[in-house]
Amino acid sequence: MIHELSKYWGYIVFRGVIAILFAIFAFIWPALTLSVLVIFLGAYFLVDGIFSIIHGFQIMKKDESWWTFLLIGLMGIIAGGLMLFMPGITAIFLVTLVAIWAVVTGLLEIIVAIRLRKELTNEWMLILAGILSVVFGILLFMQPVVGVVVLAWYLGFYALFLGVFLLSVGFRLRKVHKSYENQHGKHA
């Protein structure tokens, strides 16, 4: 499983970079209007969802956890599509949608990490990313009337930590992939 996952380490790194970029924008412009935040967040969810689905299909025949990536991707595409095609969405619906996405994605990330625990050292980072997603979602459920600025800061911190954890996991998978290539040849 780890060898197949390591082939696509770049997708995980890409997701981490996008998350960190989102965090930077959220911190620089916390007072974004709701419609701009909705469009930006929708685009992020959509791109993240597409890359997760691509990854899931690439490992479908080789790894039985492929479905978790498809579900993560579908959640991102659904959330992103709703935000992009319904920019007049209310703040409470936005908070609820982000909360649901964070909880479901976090739980699926924890499942993937648990499956990798025997094959990847420091898989705790992916577990921590999943726990962070779940906690973030629960906080949003608890404060559905949170202001746009506070939501932007919550999202910024969440995206920053998620991005750092995903980069760490991605680069660890890159090492696994390079090691495998060195042992078995480039085309193995």
UniProtKB/TrEMBL annotation:
Pfam families: DUF308
Keyword field: Membrane, Transmembrane, Transmembrane helix
InterPro entries per the UniProt record, alphabetical: Acid_resist_chaperone_HdeD (IPR052712), DUF308_memb (IPR005325)
Residue ranges crossing the lipid bilayer per the database entry: 12-29, 35-54, 66-85, 91-112, 124-145, 151-171
Designated name of the protein: HdeD family acid-resistance protein
Protein source organism: Chitinophaga pollutisoli
